[in-house]
Amino acid sequence: MDFENWWLLAFPSFFLLGWLAAKIDVKQLINESKNIPSTYIEGLNFLLNEERDKAIDVLVKLSVNEPDSVELQFAVGSLFRSNGEIQRALAVHQGLLDRPDLTNAQRNRAVLAVGEDFFKSGMYDRAEDFLKRVGTGKYKAVALRLLIDLYVNQNEWHRAVDVANQLQLASGQSYASEVAHFMVEISSQHHCDGDDAKAIDWLRKSLNVDPQAPRPRIALGQVLKSQGRYLEAIHELTQLELESSSFIGLVSDALIECHDKLGTKNQCLDKFKKLIDLSSSHDLLVKTFEMSMELEGQVTACDLARKFLKTTTDVGWAIPILESIKNDIAEASTADVDLLIEMAKQYRQEEAYICDSCGFLAHAHYWRCPACRQWDTYTLTSSAKGVPA
Ligand SMILES: [Zn+2]
User: Fold this and answer.
1) 364 C-alpha to center of ligand 1: Å?
2) Distance 379 CA to ligand 1 centre (A)
3) What is residue 377's three-state secondary structure?
4) Domains of the chain (ranges plus CATH)?
5) What's the DSSP call for residue 361?
6) CA of 160 to the centre of ligand 1 (A)
7) DSSP label at 19?
8) Ligand 1 center to residue 380 CA distance, Å?
9) Nearest CA to 216 among 242, 246, 183?
10) What's the pTM value of the predicted model, to 2 decimals?
11) Is 375 helix (H, G, I), strand (E, B) or coil?
């Protein structure tokens, strides 16, 4: 038989072998599924139907019958915790810690679980103690993440920075934007204590960590302004137009004040007019209009308002303008224009910021959502405005 004919016989043989292998796997699978107690399936069903109380009852009964099953104990503990029954979760997890037969990984997992239980119950000292004890391995990064949250909750910003740096090393991921926020918090504490030199030092460190971050730049401008260093403040705040122009609206008042002190308000107006062409925010439009009214007079300011109406995509801004100026802006009286400004301000107060993460509505800009505690979730849009909280 030549080579080609051998292969003609070999192909059906391979097919047969594959079919047999598949038969064996299926048979094994059926055997294994028969070995799974029906109570497991019952518990799983309750979980899938989000009936946690019933699932807990089933798993607790199972764990009594199978006290050696470590995984089952972890499952019961997790369910207690997610059900808000922290004391029962703690009892299960601490029971696991007392067992001498755990592997290193299981022991780390149990230490982490106890730390998390204490964290959830608000017993931060005990939580910190356990979370610090989690050894290297796959649970280390989770423990460090929880430790950061713990320190943030307690405003212990120096420790938060240290642990975030450890987490960066352990996970290989960058936490630069969070570290930058923590450093701004440290700076803010020094500023409150009257130590502006240290406050500025920490803001510069923050910018070194995350050069694109708007918050340290804004805070630096505010501290410099408070020291009367208006030119330097203007320099820092106008950096935002290069790095994160949408935040300029948040510092428009500070910029106007600095220019006012230096007698260069006209420069500020020119700058704002250029910025509006690049990225207009509601606040910037209002401020520019008000400055134009003050420095250039009503006719020029009304021309500017007409331009806004033609160019802005911010319908919210357009509606009060349109309502107040009605048909011909050139003939609008001072009272009409005052009304226009008032309506724009009113609109500003009614508008809310929405958290990208949880949808929480706020009337001021927050760097950290008060509801879900996530950083940088209030993304500024063209209608963004107000002073950061
Ligand atoms: Zn949120």
Assistant:
1) 13
2) 11
3) coil
4) 3-155 (1.25.40.10), 174-235 (1.25.40.10), 262-350 (no CATH), 352-389 (no CATH)
5) E
6) 20
7) H
8) 14
9) 183
10) 0.73
11) strand
> How many whole angstroms from 312 Cα to the centroid of ligand 1?
28
CA–CA separation, 104 and 113 (whole Å): 14
Q: Per residue in 13-50, is it b (16+ CB within 10 Å) or e — as a string?
A: eeeeeeeeeeeeeeeeeeeeeeeeeeeeebbeebbeee
Amino acid at 258: C
CA end-to-end distance (rounded Å), the chain:
87
| Centroid of ligand 1 to alpha carbon of 384 (angstroms) | 17
Residue 190 Cα to chain centre, angstroms: 25
Ligand 1: centre distance to CA 120 (Å): 19
pLDDT digit of tens for each residue in the chain (389 aa)? 444 454 444 544 444 445 444 444 545 544 544 555 666 666 666 666 667 777 777 777 766 666 667 888 888 888 889 888 999 999 989 989 988 888 999 999 999 999 999 999 999 999 999 999 999 888 999 999 999 999 999 999 999 999 999 999 988 999 999 999 999 999 999 999 999 999 999 999 999 999 989 999 999 999 999 999 999 999 999 888 766 667 888 899 999 999 999 999 999 999 998 888 776 677 788 888 889 989 998 778 877 877 776 665 555 545 445 544 555 555 556 666 665 666 566 555 555 678 888 888 887 788 998 888 889 888 664 443 333 44
Q: What is the Å distance from ligand 1's center to 242 Cα? A: 27
Q: Which amino acid does the sequence have at 82?
A: S
DSSP codes joined into one string, 283-334: HHHHHHHHHHHHHH-HHHHHHHHHHHHHH---HHHHHHHHHHHTT-GGG--H
CA of 206 to the centre of ligand 1 (A): 23
- Distance, CA of 332 to CA of 89 (rounded, Å): 69
Kindly give the distance from the C-alpha atom of residue 96 to the centroid of ligand 1, in angstroms, as a whole number: 35
